[in-house]
Amino acid sequence: MTRQTSFIYALISCLLIISISCKKTNETYPEVKILSPAEGTTYSFGDTIFVTVEIKESDATPIVSILDGSVNTGLPFDQLEVKGYEHNFQFYFNKQELSSGSYTIRATASNGSNNRSDFLEVHLEQEPLEYLGFVSIAASSLIKVDNQGGIEEKYLNGDYNLLAFNERQGIAVTATESNGDLRGYSYSPLQQEYNIVSTTGVKKYNALVNDKQRVYSLAANGEIKAYSRDGSIERSFLTRSDLEPISGCAGNDGLLICVKERGKENYALHLLNATNGAELKTKSLQGPVVGIVNPSNGVYIIAVKRTRETMVYSYEPSANTLTKLFSLQGEPTCLFTDYNGVVMVSTTNAIFAFQLTNVTQPYQVYNFSANDIAYDKVGDQILIASGNQIYRGDVNGGSATVYHQEIKDILQVEAVHNR
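The structure corresponding to this sequence follows.
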């Protein structure tokens, strides 16, 4: 009797344990939380929308979409990477038919048949976007060309060296070759709006960096300044006195610049706080960086110059890791990315392209070199400054001349849209 009772109790206990275990498995719901962007962030047509989602207790790939009410907008996206519990995505705001208004980012995770979602509201601004043409610089001229390829206006004998066009400001910023001045030009009409004469010993600017809101100048004396639409200085700070900034790129992580140690051939990446210039992270390099682009959230691509060779790396600030992707024959001349995440590398031999999802297989797109590459978001085409000509093509090849200059090389080109 006692043995039978003990057996019955043991059997009941086992059944209870099995029942509770099954119940826990069946009732385990995933945890999902959208970490970024911030609630209410506004995006304009052509922007890339980076989304980070924290997911726990999930046994399947999360589903992320941008909704208009309850309807999926169908904006294309890529899943970039997974780091621990964090899943990173990027959406491309490239659908012309969407209207301005509030939209919802929805992230859904699942565990078996159990689903859970998190929601976040963003605002999309869909202004009618028009390609107006481009501005370009040669060694002694600033040129404006309309969307039909006709030359509208030209400034001659200007000693131009660098160019950046900020669409939200509607201003083309140029740096001079020798006297340390910066100039701002409106596009329509092409006329000078301001001139900034340095009072801090700037003899040369090495790069202009556009973060969509403002333009930063990187001066050879280590001075970094950010300018507003009217040319006033919004921010100003100095790098370490022993360092000269060479090139840079603005991203969500801050201002990523390549610096050279004065008097030596030592180079490094420095990630700076874009507001106050505080040094956040550093990474040594094997040569000078000719170009830096930010094709996806938290990942930068850099082209490093070596003798007769271009070394292409990815840099991730979160882990402060520099990873060699591949090398190309010929030294680098420029680097470019479009908002679909394609990266183009121009060497002195040819122009190559690759995507982050297939970085080991760059493919040759053009058999000539580029001094600079710009992007027309409306036509989904690129403008290539090469020699004394500007070509129109795309990331898969094909080109036609849209501008020809008789004498000097064209140094830089910037596509212009109506905002």
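Helices lie at 2-26.
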